[in-house]
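Bumping with the actual sequence this time:
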Amino acid sequence: MTATLVKETSPPSAAGAGPARRPRRRGRAVALLFVLPALLLLGALVVYPVLFSVGRSFFDASGTRFVGGDNYAEMFRDPATVKAVRNTAIWVVVAPTLLTGLGLILAVLVEKIRWATAFKLLLFMPMAVSFLAAGIIFRLAYDEDPDKGVLNAAAVTVHDAFTGTSSYPTARARDGQGLGKADGGYRTTASVSPGDTLALGLVGVQPKDLPQGAEPAKAPAAGPGELRGVVYLDFTPGGGGRQGQVDPKESGLPEMRVEAVRDGKTAASTTTAPDGSFRFTDLADGSYTVRLPASNFSAPYEGVSWLGPALVTPAIIGAYLWIWTGFAMVLIGAGLSTLPRDALEAARIDGANEWQIFRRITVPLLAPVLTVVFVTLVINVMKVFDLVYIIAPGPVQEDATVLATQMWLVSFGGGNDQGLGSALGVLLLLLVVPAMVFNVRRFRRSQR
């Protein structure tokens, strides 16, 4: 009886296990067959270039002489590469932080408005624009010429609305016509007194640039106890006329500030009329000097040099924020929609205000999502190339360069040193891989 039981409970023989394993092996083979094209593509486009770049980084520019770690040492001796590393660090610290913060704020605020979907769509639309097109858009927007760059057009408009602007930045006095330079402006070389008249002729102003409402100049008539004069354009269209004298076809220069100066102090000031005339009344007897101050001739405000050496990196980061803010907002908004509403309602019932709920409940519960968004953006900014290469003008390209652009410039953009370029590529890979590994592990933990 015991022998019979042992025989019935014994494991199946190897011959019987074979048919059961064949379908499993066949399934694995079919799965491998389907995955093989993807593995081949991944090897050709990712694995092989990485291995080739690592090997190429140990050779010189020509690729024929083994130099060991010289290229890696050269990276940190080259000032341009050091600046690229510094700019990349600025990008990694500033851009993801600002984007995550903006995305969080917008995601919370969007929940409070009626047209939330339309608002999200508007903010997400820049993601549909390629970096090339976005770079061209912002290159034009940042143009220093106010007639082309929309930002400087707005800056000039606001500036001129509060401080005004000169109408005669190119005007100048003729030599020997009784006006001498003084503190950026002009003053009469001879003293004058009440009852005198002056004709102050200027040149260098094109008739088409005269202010609207300018009228023909008239020679001033003497007035008892008054100091009178005219500021005019000493130029007759079509030729003719006499230098230093007011001719019938010559135009007055309106809105020109004129000052009467005595003992180094301004005794009176006025502004010229449409025909360029001016007069000072109630002046005490004595000698005066008439001055046209420098404010009449100051160059117009041209706006901000957005793409200059000092602001080019923040300007490009601004363009990056425009593109990626919608991405951060949508991801964080998705995480926000999964928060337990009972916890938020319980906090409101307990008397917590919205700021306390946001700081002590919403943000801690969103920490995993915020981390994933931040790390994803860190990986992305390390590889930024298009915006920097397109927006930064040639003279400031080195001031805005990051590791990706420096790698291209060294390898193909004139440096022709693919050994050093490969070393830069390996450095960039080493910086990106830890962030990628962290993100993948974080994602796997959240899936569990």
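The tokens above came from a reply further down the thread. The chain has two domains: 70-154+306-447, 172-296.
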